[in-house]
Amino acid sequence: MDAIIDAHCHLGDILNRGGGSLIEKTSVRKRILFDPLCISELNLYRSCGLDDLLFALFPNWVTKAEQARNATATRENLRKSMDEAGIMYSVCMPVPPHVTFTDLVRAAAEDPGIIPFTGIDFTQEYDLNTVLADDVKSGAKGLKLHPIIQNVSLDSQRTFEAVEAFAPHGLPVMLHTGVTSYYLKQEKAWENPHYGEIRYVRELARSFPGVNFIAGHAGLDEVHDVMEMLGGFHNVWVDISFQSPEKIRDLISVFGPDRILYGSDWPWGNRITALKTVFSACRGDKGLEARILSENAIELMNLL
Q1: Which of 52, 54, 187, 233 could crosslink 36 through cysteines, CB 3.0-4.6 Å?
Q2: Can you give the pLDDT at residue 59?
Q3: What is the side-by-side strand order in the sheet with 236-239?
Q4: Phi/psi zone of residue 27: left (φ > 0), alpha (ψ -120 to 50 degrees), beta?
């Protein structure tokens, strides 16, 4: 098998301004707290009732656990997790203005296993064409848009302008998909969870048939909407982070084996758990494993 490529990772604190400063910190460990996500991971993201009940009864604990994981996204921890899981390359996603392409380029200069995407700082006005062209020349292998954390809808004029500016480079656009929340209390005003609805991705895919999109997490709990609304678009790929083996097999049947990407969403997700879901879904088919774990990402992102 070729080198395993994790197509969806993060470095730095993507939830707060100045999050890039976290990347080079050392000896950072996750704070001790109840983490319901561990139950889901033990079950390979299968819905078993108990985790669903915990998520429904204690949604704030889920958010607290996610924030605790986010706070461990250092380069040191990234490398440790890659070595433990046998990952050769981590495709890292910025979320400007919190974590920027510049932050990721600096990290990649220290660790060649880091492959950066670029992003859009929607808090500023600037020449998108020039900046994105420069980022691609500097090694960006795609564009990341996070409508919930950035609080900018995928059907907004600014999003369409960004995709149009990036289109000539022939590289993919990774989109967060799935309705979820990242903040607590008054900070909830910073986000709009419903911007993760799949209908927004459908409009982008329809409007830009020449651009390849990646539906991040395959929509999370909206995975059925992803299959129903996006399966017919030949310019849409999915990553399997947080999806069970059974859901991955469903995704393969809808999108085909060439449009599925291994991704963990590290540190929000567990790399080894995500690998186990792929191996279980593939049922010993080594050719299919190779497509999902490396070959599809290599072709889509023009890697290696």
Answers
A1: 54
A2: 76
A3: 118-119, 143-145, 173-176, 213-216, 236-239, 260-261
A4: left
DSSP H helices, 35-171, are 37-42, 50-57, 59-70, 75-85, 101-110, 128-137, 157-166
- Pair 131, 50: CB distance under 8 Å: no
Q: Which residue do the tokens 């709990």 mark?
A: 221
- Amino acid residing at 166: F
Tokens of 267: 């540190």
pLDDT digits (tens, 9 = 90+) for 20-66: 999 999 999 999 998 989 989 999 999 865 556 666 777 789 999 99
Retrieve residue 221's tokens: 């709990």
Let me know: does 278 contact 293? Beta carbons within 8 Å: yes
Sheet of 5-9: strand order equals 5-9, 89-92, 114-116
Q: Which two tokens stand for residue 152?
A: 């900018």
Overall pTM surpassing 0.85 (yes/no): yes
Which tokens sit at 258? 């060439």
Chunked in runs of 10, what are the mean pLDDT values of the chain (304 residues)? 90 98 98 91 83 70 95 98 98 98 98 98 97 98 98 97 98 97 94 97 98 98 98 98 98 98 98 98 98 98 90
In sequence order, the 6+-apart residues with CB closer than 8 A to the CB of 107 are 11, 23, 24, 75, 92, 114, 116
DSSP 8-state secondary structure symbol assigned to residue 286: H
How high is the pLDDT of residue 54?
66
User: Which two tokens mark 183?
Assistant: 């903040």
Cβ neighbors of 149 (< 8 A, separation 6 or more) are 14, 15, 95, 98, 176, 182, 190, 191
Report the amino acid identity of residue 70: N
Predicted pLDDT of residue 49: 59
